[in-house]
Amino acid sequence: MEKTAKPRSRLCTLCNEKRAALKRPKTLEQICRECFYTVFEDEIHRVIVDNQLFKPGERIAIGASGGKDSTVLAYVMSELNRRHNYGLDLFLLSVDEGITGYRDDSLETVKRNEIQAGKKSC
Prior knowledge:
Blueprint: E1 22-23, E2 30-31, H1 33-50, E3 59-63, H2 68-84, E4 89-93, H3 104-117, E5 120-121
Parallel strand pairs: 3-4, 4-5
Antiparallel strand pairs: 1-2
């Protein structure tokens, strides 16, 4: 009985060092996690700069639900603001509808994100 060879793990097409973790739908490139983070943040930065989305000194509210999407947005904006010196005053904005038990956990998550990122919240 003949053994079939296991398919080898593909390397990242960008760094060619680490094992590819995902295939980007946009480009079909197979890339590692680290390269994905770099490409993701670089693309967001290019959109911000190319479209002149912000001016230094502007106050920018980030809608924060406590979920993964708003948490990633808050993190990336904070990181890019620091790294590229956009000069933005970022703060988290979350709505408490006043319904007991409805938003309690997510508001606690927003507060934790605020402390970790050093942003203000409203």
